[in-house]
Hints:
The complex is a heterodimer of chains A (about 300) and B (about 150).
Chain A: H1 14-29, E1 40-45, H2 50-62, E2 66-70, H3 84-92, E3 97-102, H4 107-114, E4 119-124, H5 130-144, E5 151-155, H6 162-171, E6 177-181, H7 190-199, E7 202-206, H8 211-215, E8 219-222, H9 233-239, E9 258-260, H10 281-299
Parallel strand pairs in A: 1-2, 1-3, 3-4, 5-6, 5-8, 6-7, 8-9
Helix pairs in contact in A: 1-5, 1-10, 2-10, 3-4, 5-6, 5-10
Chain B: H1 2-9, E1 16-23, H2 27-34, E2 43-51, E3 55-63, H3 69-73, E4 83-88, E5 91-97, E6 103-105, E7 108-109, E8 125-130, E9 135-138, E10 144-146, E11 151-152
Antiparallel strand pairs in B: 1-3, 1-4, 2-3, 4-5, 6-8, 7-11, 8-9, 9-10
Amino acid sequence: MNQHSxxxxxxxxxxxxxxxxxxxxxxxxHPNHKILDxxxxxxxxxxxxxxxxxxxxxxxxRLGGRIIGFADANTTSSSKGETLKDTIKMxxxxxxxxxxxHYLEGAARYAAxxxxxxxxxxGDGANQHPSQTMxxxxxxxxxxxxxxxxxxxxxxxxxxxxTVHSLIMAMKYFxxxxxxxxxxxxxxxxxxxxxxxEQGIDYSIHTDFSAEVINTSDIIYMTRVQRERFTDLAEYExxxxxxxxxxxxxxxxxxxxxxxxxxxxxxEISPDVDDNPKAYYFNQARNGLYMxxxxxxxxxxxxxxx
Amino acid sequence: MTTNKxxxxxxxxxxxxxxxHIPADQLFKCVKxxxxxxxxxxxxxxxxxxxHKLGAKGIxxxxxxxxxxxxxxxxxxxxxxxxxxxxxxxxxxxxRPVVLPQTVVGIVRCSNPKCITNNEPMATRFExxxxxxxxxxxxxxxxxxxxxxxxxx
Lengths: 306, 153
Protein backbone atom coordinates (compact mmCIF):
# COMPACT_ATOMS: atom_id res chain seq x y z
CA MET A 1 0.00 0.00 0.00
CA ASN A 2 1.30 3.44 -0.94
CA GLN A 3 0.68 6.00 1.78
CA HIS A 4 -0.08 8.71 -0.76
CA SER A 5 -3.15 6.93 -2.13
CA UNK A 6 -6.46 8.74 -1.76
CA UNK A 7 -9.33 6.35 -1.15
CA UNK A 8 -11.70 8.17 1.18
CA UNK A 9 -12.21 11.75 2.30
CA UNK A 10 -11.63 10.52 5.84
CA UNK A 11 -8.00 9.75 4.84
CA UNK A 12 -7.33 13.50 4.72
CA UNK A 13 -6.38 15.57 7.73
CA UNK A 14 -7.49 19.21 8.06
CA UNK A 15 -3.95 20.37 7.30
CA UNK A 16 -3.76 18.28 4.18
CA UNK A 17 -7.15 19.53 2.97
CA UNK A 18 -6.04 23.13 3.42
CA UNK A 19 -2.77 22.42 1.63
CA UNK A 20 -4.66 20.86 -1.29
CA UNK A 21 -6.93 23.91 -1.52
CA UNK A 22 -3.87 26.14 -1.81
CA UNK A 23 -2.39 23.85 -4.45
CA UNK A 24 -5.64 23.89 -6.43
CA UNK A 25 -5.51 27.66 -6.34
CA UNK A 26 -1.95 27.50 -7.68
CA UNK A 27 -3.09 25.32 -10.59
CA UNK A 28 -5.96 27.66 -11.32
CA UNK A 29 -3.32 30.31 -11.88
CA HIS A 30 -0.92 27.94 -13.70
CA PRO A 31 -3.09 25.28 -15.34
CA ASN A 32 -0.48 24.25 -17.91
CA HIS A 33 2.50 23.76 -15.64
CA LYS A 34 4.33 20.75 -17.17
CA ILE A 35 5.57 19.02 -14.07
CA LEU A 36 4.49 15.47 -14.93
CA ASP A 37 7.02 15.12 -17.74
CA UNK A 38 7.98 11.45 -18.03
CA UNK A 39 5.11 10.26 -15.82
CA UNK A 40 2.52 7.79 -17.03
CA UNK A 41 -0.90 7.70 -15.36
CA UNK A 42 -3.33 4.77 -15.71
CA UNK A 43 -7.01 5.76 -15.80
CA UNK A 44 -8.93 2.57 -15.13
CA UNK A 45 -12.65 3.19 -15.51
CA UNK A 46 -14.43 -0.10 -14.85
CA UNK A 47 -17.62 1.94 -14.90
CA UNK A 48 -18.19 4.66 -17.48
CA UNK A 49 -18.06 8.22 -16.17
CA UNK A 50 -17.63 10.92 -18.75
CA UNK A 51 -17.31 13.90 -16.45
CA UNK A 52 -14.87 12.50 -13.92
CA UNK A 53 -12.71 10.75 -16.51
CA UNK A 54 -12.44 13.78 -18.77
CA UNK A 55 -11.60 15.97 -15.80
CA UNK A 56 -8.83 13.66 -14.55
CA UNK A 57 -7.44 13.10 -18.05
CA UNK A 58 -7.44 16.83 -18.77
CA UNK A 59 -5.60 17.37 -15.49
CA UNK A 60 -2.86 14.87 -16.48
CA UNK A 61 -2.59 16.28 -20.00
CA ARG A 62 -2.31 19.87 -18.82
CA LEU A 63 0.44 18.81 -16.39
CA GLY A 64 2.35 17.21 -19.26
CA GLY A 65 1.92 13.57 -18.21
CA ARG A 66 0.87 10.66 -20.44
CA ILE A 67 -2.21 8.50 -20.02
CA ILE A 68 -2.98 4.85 -20.61
CA GLY A 69 -6.20 3.18 -19.60
CA PHE A 70 -9.74 2.34 -20.53
CA ALA A 71 -13.14 3.98 -20.28
CA ASP A 72 -15.21 0.83 -20.24
CA ALA A 73 -14.45 -2.48 -18.53
CA ASN A 74 -16.02 -4.47 -21.37
CA THR A 75 -12.91 -3.91 -23.44
CA THR A 76 -10.59 -5.32 -20.76
CA SER A 77 -9.64 -8.72 -19.43
CA SER A 78 -11.92 -8.22 -16.42
CA SER A 79 -14.66 -9.17 -18.89
CA LYS A 80 -12.74 -12.49 -19.24
CA GLY A 81 -12.94 -12.99 -15.50
CA GLU A 82 -9.61 -11.51 -14.42
CA THR A 83 -9.66 -10.43 -10.79
CA LEU A 84 -9.30 -6.78 -9.86
CA LYS A 85 -6.11 -7.65 -7.99
CA ASP A 86 -4.50 -9.11 -11.11
CA THR A 87 -5.50 -6.14 -13.26
CA ILE A 88 -4.07 -3.70 -10.71
CA LYS A 89 -0.86 -5.74 -10.31
CA MET A 90 -0.40 -5.84 -14.07
CA UNK A 91 -1.07 -2.12 -14.63
CA UNK A 92 1.20 -1.23 -11.69
CA UNK A 93 4.15 -2.46 -13.76
CA UNK A 94 3.54 0.22 -16.35
CA UNK A 95 2.36 3.37 -14.62
CA UNK A 96 3.32 5.79 -11.85
CA UNK A 97 -0.23 6.41 -10.62
CA UNK A 98 -3.58 4.68 -10.96
CA UNK A 99 -6.83 6.64 -11.12
CA UNK A 100 -9.68 4.18 -10.80
CA UNK A 101 -13.45 4.18 -10.92
CA HIS A 102 -15.20 0.93 -10.11
CA TYR A 103 -18.83 -0.11 -9.79
CA LEU A 104 -18.10 -2.19 -6.66
CA GLU A 105 -17.94 -0.57 -3.24
CA GLY A 106 -14.60 -0.89 -1.49
CA ALA A 107 -12.79 -1.63 -4.77
CA ALA A 108 -10.55 1.42 -4.35
CA ARG A 109 -9.43 0.45 -0.84
CA TYR A 110 -8.62 -3.05 -2.07
CA ALA A 111 -6.78 -1.79 -5.15
CA ALA A 112 -4.69 0.53 -2.97
CA UNK A 113 -3.80 -2.41 -0.72
CA UNK A 114 -2.53 -4.70 -3.46
CA UNK A 115 -0.11 -2.28 -5.14
CA UNK A 116 2.84 -0.14 -4.10
CA UNK A 117 2.02 2.70 -6.46
CA UNK A 118 -0.51 5.37 -5.40
CA UNK A 119 -4.19 4.93 -6.24
CA UNK A 120 -6.70 7.77 -6.47
CA UNK A 121 -10.31 6.71 -6.03
CA UNK A 122 -12.43 8.28 -8.76
CA GLY A 123 -15.58 6.74 -7.28
CA ASP A 124 -16.33 3.23 -6.02
CA GLY A 125 -20.02 2.48 -6.36
CA ALA A 126 -22.10 4.36 -3.81
CA ASN A 127 -19.17 4.44 -1.40
CA GLN A 128 -16.58 7.20 -1.83
CA HIS A 129 -15.67 9.87 -4.37
CA PRO A 130 -13.09 12.03 -2.59
CA SER A 131 -12.02 14.17 -5.57
CA GLN A 132 -15.65 15.35 -5.90
CA THR A 133 -15.69 16.31 -2.23
CA MET A 134 -12.40 18.16 -2.53
CA UNK A 135 -13.62 20.13 -5.54
CA UNK A 136 -16.81 20.96 -3.62
CA UNK A 137 -14.66 22.19 -0.77
CA UNK A 138 -12.54 24.26 -3.15
CA UNK A 139 -15.67 25.78 -4.67
CA UNK A 140 -17.01 26.71 -1.25
CA UNK A 141 -13.64 28.12 -0.17
CA UNK A 142 -13.23 30.12 -3.36
CA UNK A 143 -16.69 31.65 -3.34
CA UNK A 144 -16.91 32.37 0.38
CA UNK A 145 -13.27 33.22 1.09
CA UNK A 146 -13.35 30.83 4.05
CA UNK A 147 -14.62 27.42 5.08
CA UNK A 148 -15.23 28.50 8.64
CA UNK A 149 -18.70 28.94 10.15
CA UNK A 150 -20.80 28.67 6.96
CA UNK A 151 -24.47 27.79 6.67
CA UNK A 152 -24.80 25.04 4.09
CA UNK A 153 -28.16 23.78 2.86
CA UNK A 154 -28.22 20.32 1.31
CA UNK A 155 -31.28 19.62 -0.86
CA UNK A 156 -32.79 16.63 -2.64
CA UNK A 157 -31.60 13.08 -2.19
CA UNK A 158 -29.80 13.07 1.13
CA UNK A 159 -30.30 9.37 1.69
CA UNK A 160 -28.33 7.91 -1.20
CA UNK A 161 -26.28 10.94 -2.26
CA UNK A 162 -22.68 10.08 -1.43
CA THR A 163 -21.52 13.62 -2.28
CA VAL A 164 -23.54 15.14 0.56
CA HIS A 165 -22.38 12.47 3.03
CA SER A 166 -18.72 13.08 2.17
CA LEU A 167 -19.23 16.84 2.31
CA ILE A 168 -20.47 16.57 5.90
CA MET A 169 -17.39 14.53 6.80
CA ALA A 170 -15.04 17.00 5.12
CA MET A 171 -16.68 20.06 6.72
CA LYS A 172 -16.39 18.71 10.25
CA TYR A 173 -13.22 20.73 10.84
CA PHE A 174 -14.85 24.05 9.98
CA UNK A 175 -17.81 24.51 12.37
CA UNK A 176 -20.55 24.52 9.72
CA UNK A 177 -24.32 24.73 10.19
CA UNK A 178 -26.12 22.28 7.95
CA UNK A 179 -29.73 22.30 6.80
CA UNK A 180 -31.02 19.03 5.45
CA UNK A 181 -33.93 19.63 3.05
CA UNK A 182 -35.59 16.48 1.71
CA UNK A 183 -38.79 14.47 1.74
CA UNK A 184 -39.06 11.90 4.52
CA UNK A 185 -38.17 9.06 2.16
CA UNK A 186 -34.85 10.65 1.18
CA UNK A 187 -33.83 12.35 4.43
CA UNK A 188 -30.32 12.19 5.83
CA UNK A 189 -29.65 8.70 7.27
CA UNK A 190 -29.50 8.34 11.04
CA UNK A 191 -25.83 7.37 10.99
CA UNK A 192 -24.90 10.77 9.53
CA UNK A 193 -27.11 12.61 12.02
CA UNK A 194 -25.30 10.67 14.71
CA UNK A 195 -22.00 11.63 13.12
CA UNK A 196 -23.01 15.32 13.27
CA UNK A 197 -23.96 14.92 16.94
CA GLU A 198 -20.64 13.26 17.74
CA GLN A 199 -18.65 15.91 15.89
CA GLY A 200 -20.64 18.80 17.39
CA ILE A 201 -21.96 19.88 13.97
CA ASP A 202 -25.13 22.02 14.07
CA TYR A 203 -27.93 20.85 11.81
CA SER A 204 -31.66 21.12 11.28
CA ILE A 205 -34.01 18.94 9.26
CA HIS A 206 -36.61 20.38 6.88
CA THR A 207 -39.17 18.93 4.51
CA ASP A 208 -40.02 22.36 3.15
CA PHE A 209 -37.56 24.13 0.79
CA SER A 210 -38.72 27.43 2.23
CA ALA A 211 -37.75 31.07 1.65
CA GLU A 212 -36.47 31.21 5.20
CA VAL A 213 -34.03 28.37 4.55
CA ILE A 214 -32.90 29.83 1.21
CA ASN A 215 -32.48 33.38 2.49
CA THR A 216 -30.22 32.40 5.37
CA SER A 217 -27.87 30.10 3.42
CA ASP A 218 -24.31 30.74 2.28
CA ILE A 219 -24.26 27.64 0.12
CA ILE A 220 -27.16 25.68 -1.35
CA TYR A 221 -26.00 22.26 -2.52
CA MET A 222 -28.60 20.71 -4.82
CA THR A 223 -28.73 17.01 -5.67
CA ARG A 224 -30.77 14.97 -8.08
CA VAL A 225 -33.87 13.15 -6.86
CA GLN A 226 -33.86 9.92 -8.81
CA ARG A 227 -37.05 8.10 -9.66
CA GLU A 228 -35.44 4.69 -9.12
CA ARG A 229 -34.80 5.51 -5.45
CA PHE A 230 -38.52 5.36 -4.65
CA THR A 231 -40.37 2.24 -3.65
CA ASP A 232 -43.63 4.14 -4.05
CA LEU A 233 -43.84 5.91 -7.43
CA ALA A 234 -46.85 7.97 -6.30
CA GLU A 235 -44.57 9.41 -3.63
CA TYR A 236 -42.00 10.27 -6.30
CA GLU A 237 -44.63 12.09 -8.36
CA UNK A 238 -45.69 13.99 -5.25
CA UNK A 239 -42.23 15.19 -4.23
CA UNK A 240 -40.25 15.43 -7.48
CA UNK A 241 -40.98 19.14 -8.03
CA UNK A 242 -40.96 20.19 -4.37
CA UNK A 243 -37.20 20.43 -4.38
CA UNK A 244 -36.69 22.31 -7.62
CA UNK A 245 -34.90 25.63 -7.42
CA UNK A 246 -36.32 28.49 -9.53
CA UNK A 247 -34.68 31.86 -10.08
CA UNK A 248 -37.48 33.77 -8.35
CA UNK A 249 -36.77 31.85 -5.14
CA UNK A 250 -33.37 33.58 -4.94
CA UNK A 251 -34.72 37.16 -4.91
CA UNK A 252 -34.06 37.78 -1.23
CA UNK A 253 -31.09 35.47 -0.80
CA UNK A 254 -27.73 36.58 0.59
CA UNK A 255 -25.31 38.28 -1.80
CA UNK A 256 -22.63 35.69 -1.06
CA UNK A 257 -24.98 32.73 -1.68
CA UNK A 258 -23.77 30.27 -4.31
CA UNK A 259 -25.67 27.33 -5.76
CA UNK A 260 -23.67 24.12 -6.14
CA UNK A 261 -24.61 20.85 -7.82
CA UNK A 262 -22.36 17.85 -8.54
CA UNK A 263 -24.02 17.47 -12.00
CA UNK A 264 -25.57 16.00 -14.05
CA UNK A 265 -28.70 17.96 -13.23
CA UNK A 266 -32.11 17.03 -14.54
CA UNK A 267 -34.93 19.22 -13.32
CA GLU A 268 -33.89 20.11 -9.78
CA ILE A 269 -32.44 23.43 -10.91
CA SER A 270 -34.60 25.29 -13.37
CA PRO A 271 -32.65 26.62 -16.42
CA ASP A 272 -33.68 30.17 -15.47
CA VAL A 273 -31.22 29.97 -12.56
CA ASP A 274 -28.26 29.45 -14.92
CA ASP A 275 -27.86 33.16 -15.71
CA ASN A 276 -28.06 34.21 -12.08
CA PRO A 277 -24.56 35.13 -10.85
CA LYS A 278 -25.27 32.97 -7.80
CA ALA A 279 -25.39 29.85 -10.00
CA TYR A 280 -21.99 28.26 -9.58
CA TYR A 281 -22.35 24.64 -10.76
CA PHE A 282 -20.54 25.02 -14.07
CA ASN A 283 -17.64 26.86 -12.41
CA GLN A 284 -17.70 24.11 -9.80
CA ALA A 285 -17.05 21.53 -12.51
CA ARG A 286 -14.13 23.62 -13.78
CA ASN A 287 -12.70 23.77 -10.25
CA GLY A 288 -12.62 19.97 -10.45
CA LEU A 289 -9.80 20.24 -12.97
CA TYR A 290 -7.58 22.32 -10.66
CA MET A 291 -8.33 20.23 -7.62
CA UNK A 292 -7.57 17.04 -9.54
CA UNK A 293 -4.27 18.51 -10.67
CA UNK A 294 -3.48 19.12 -6.99
CA UNK A 295 -4.55 15.58 -6.01
CA UNK A 296 -2.46 13.99 -8.78
CA UNK A 297 0.66 15.94 -7.78
CA UNK A 298 0.10 15.09 -4.13
CA UNK A 299 -0.25 11.37 -4.88
CA UNK A 300 2.99 11.49 -6.89
CA UNK A 301 4.68 13.68 -4.27
CA UNK A 302 5.54 16.33 -6.82
CA UNK A 303 5.51 19.92 -5.55
CA UNK A 304 3.26 22.07 -7.79
CA UNK A 305 5.75 24.91 -8.00
CA UNK A 306 8.70 22.61 -8.72
CA MET B 1 -30.05 -29.70 40.62
CA THR B 2 -30.20 -28.00 37.25
CA THR B 3 -26.42 -27.78 37.07
CA ASN B 4 -26.14 -31.49 37.69
CA LYS B 5 -28.57 -32.28 34.95
CA UNK B 6 -26.69 -30.07 32.54
CA UNK B 7 -23.36 -31.62 33.32
CA UNK B 8 -24.88 -35.07 32.99
CA UNK B 9 -26.35 -34.16 29.65
CA UNK B 10 -22.91 -33.43 28.25
CA UNK B 11 -20.04 -35.88 28.66
CA UNK B 12 -17.18 -34.88 30.97
CA UNK B 13 -13.89 -33.98 29.36
CA UNK B 14 -10.49 -35.20 30.48
CA UNK B 15 -8.35 -32.73 28.54
CA UNK B 16 -9.40 -30.03 26.14
CA UNK B 17 -11.41 -26.86 25.73
CA UNK B 18 -15.00 -26.10 26.68
CA UNK B 19 -16.81 -23.04 25.38
CA UNK B 20 -19.80 -22.55 27.64
CA HIS B 21 -22.61 -20.00 28.01
CA ILE B 22 -23.18 -19.55 24.30
CA PRO B 23 -26.65 -18.11 23.53
CA ALA B 24 -28.59 -21.04 22.07
CA ASP B 25 -29.44 -19.21 18.84
CA GLN B 26 -25.77 -18.49 18.18
CA LEU B 27 -24.34 -21.94 18.88
CA PHE B 28 -23.96 -23.11 15.32
CA LYS B 29 -22.40 -19.82 14.29
CA CYS B 30 -19.76 -20.45 16.98
CA VAL B 31 -19.20 -23.94 15.60
CA LYS B 32 -18.63 -22.39 12.20
CA UNK B 33 -16.35 -19.62 13.51
CA UNK B 34 -14.12 -22.14 15.29
CA UNK B 35 -14.11 -24.47 12.30
CA UNK B 36 -14.49 -27.47 14.60
CA UNK B 37 -16.45 -29.45 12.05
CA UNK B 38 -13.18 -30.20 10.28
CA UNK B 39 -11.41 -31.59 13.36
CA UNK B 40 -10.91 -35.28 14.04
CA UNK B 41 -10.90 -34.69 17.82
CA UNK B 42 -13.78 -35.92 19.97
CA UNK B 43 -16.38 -33.22 19.91
CA UNK B 44 -19.56 -32.67 21.91
CA UNK B 45 -22.04 -29.98 20.98
CA UNK B 46 -24.99 -29.34 23.25
CA UNK B 47 -27.76 -26.87 22.74
CA UNK B 48 -30.88 -25.59 24.49
CA UNK B 49 -29.43 -26.63 27.83
CA UNK B 50 -30.88 -24.88 30.84
CA UNK B 51 -29.04 -21.78 31.97
CA HIS B 52 -29.83 -19.38 34.80
CA LYS B 53 -28.07 -16.55 32.96
CA LEU B 54 -29.28 -17.11 29.40
CA GLY B 55 -32.46 -19.20 29.70
CA ALA B 56 -31.19 -21.61 27.07
CA LYS B 57 -27.53 -22.03 26.28
CA GLY B 58 -25.21 -23.90 24.02
CA ILE B 59 -21.90 -25.55 24.81
CA UNK B 60 -19.00 -26.87 22.73
CA UNK B 61 -16.51 -29.36 24.16
CA UNK B 62 -13.47 -30.37 22.18
CA UNK B 63 -11.08 -33.02 23.52
CA UNK B 64 -7.31 -32.75 23.44
CA UNK B 65 -7.02 -29.32 21.95
CA UNK B 66 -6.15 -25.79 22.96
CA UNK B 67 -6.93 -22.92 20.65
CA UNK B 68 -4.93 -19.71 20.38
CA UNK B 69 -6.68 -17.01 22.42
CA UNK B 70 -7.11 -14.97 19.23
CA UNK B 71 -9.18 -17.75 17.67
CA UNK B 72 -11.41 -18.21 20.72
CA UNK B 73 -12.03 -14.48 20.98
CA UNK B 74 -13.64 -14.50 17.53
CA UNK B 75 -16.62 -16.16 19.21
CA UNK B 76 -17.28 -12.91 21.09
CA UNK B 77 -18.65 -11.45 17.89
CA UNK B 78 -21.79 -13.61 18.07
CA UNK B 79 -21.63 -14.88 21.68
CA UNK B 80 -20.34 -12.17 24.01
CA UNK B 81 -21.47 -14.17 27.05
CA UNK B 82 -19.35 -17.20 26.15
CA UNK B 83 -16.84 -18.46 28.69
CA UNK B 84 -13.78 -20.54 27.82
CA UNK B 85 -12.71 -23.36 30.17
CA UNK B 86 -9.39 -25.11 29.70
CA UNK B 87 -9.57 -28.61 31.12
CA UNK B 88 -6.62 -30.72 32.26
CA UNK B 89 -7.20 -34.08 33.88
CA UNK B 90 -10.89 -33.31 34.49
CA UNK B 91 -10.07 -30.03 36.24
CA UNK B 92 -10.76 -26.53 35.04
CA UNK B 93 -7.29 -24.96 35.04
CA UNK B 94 -8.30 -21.75 33.33
CA UNK B 95 -11.63 -19.95 32.95
CA ARG B 96 -12.05 -16.69 31.08
CA PRO B 97 -14.61 -14.75 29.13
CA VAL B 98 -14.13 -14.14 25.41
CA VAL B 99 -13.06 -10.61 24.42
CA LEU B 100 -14.15 -8.94 21.20
CA PRO B 101 -11.10 -8.13 19.01
CA GLN B 102 -10.65 -4.74 17.28
CA THR B 103 -10.66 -6.23 13.81
CA VAL B 104 -12.46 -9.27 12.47
CA VAL B 105 -10.72 -10.86 9.50
CA GLY B 106 -12.02 -13.61 7.25
CA ILE B 107 -14.99 -14.65 9.39
CA VAL B 108 -17.97 -12.51 8.42
CA ARG B 109 -19.46 -12.06 4.96
CA CYS B 110 -20.30 -8.45 4.13
CA SER B 111 -24.06 -7.95 3.82
CA ASN B 112 -23.60 -5.53 0.93
CA PRO B 113 -23.87 -7.53 -2.33
CA LYS B 114 -22.04 -4.73 -4.15
CA CYS B 115 -19.05 -4.93 -1.79
CA ILE B 116 -15.76 -5.86 -3.44
CA THR B 117 -15.30 -8.67 -0.89
CA ASN B 118 -18.35 -10.46 -2.30
CA ASN B 119 -17.00 -10.26 -5.84
CA GLU B 120 -13.28 -10.94 -5.52
CA PRO B 121 -11.40 -13.91 -3.98
CA MET B 122 -10.17 -12.07 -0.88
CA ALA B 123 -10.50 -12.07 2.90
CA THR B 124 -13.18 -9.86 4.43
CA ARG B 125 -12.15 -7.38 7.10
CA PHE B 126 -14.32 -5.55 9.60
CA GLU B 127 -13.49 -3.01 12.26
CA UNK B 128 -15.42 -2.99 15.52
CA UNK B 129 -16.95 0.48 15.78
CA UNK B 130 -19.08 -0.08 18.88
CA UNK B 131 -18.10 -2.88 21.22
CA UNK B 132 -21.27 -2.74 23.31
CA UNK B 133 -23.69 -3.27 20.43
CA UNK B 134 -21.01 -5.33 18.63
CA UNK B 135 -21.38 -3.12 15.57
CA UNK B 136 -18.79 -3.88 12.92
CA UNK B 137 -18.03 -1.91 9.77
CA UNK B 138 -16.65 -3.31 6.55
CA UNK B 139 -13.10 -2.04 6.04
CA UNK B 140 -13.77 -1.88 2.30
CA UNK B 141 -17.33 -0.68 1.61
CA UNK B 142 -18.14 0.85 5.05
CA UNK B 143 -21.42 -1.06 5.45
CA UNK B 144 -22.17 -1.70 9.10
CA UNK B 145 -23.78 -4.74 10.70
CA UNK B 146 -24.04 -6.19 14.19
CA UNK B 147 -22.44 -9.35 15.49
CA UNK B 148 -25.83 -10.98 16.14
CA UNK B 149 -26.84 -10.48 12.48
CA UNK B 150 -23.43 -11.33 11.06
CA UNK B 151 -23.35 -13.86 8.25
CA UNK B 152 -20.50 -16.24 9.10
CA UNK B 153 -18.43 -17.49 6.20
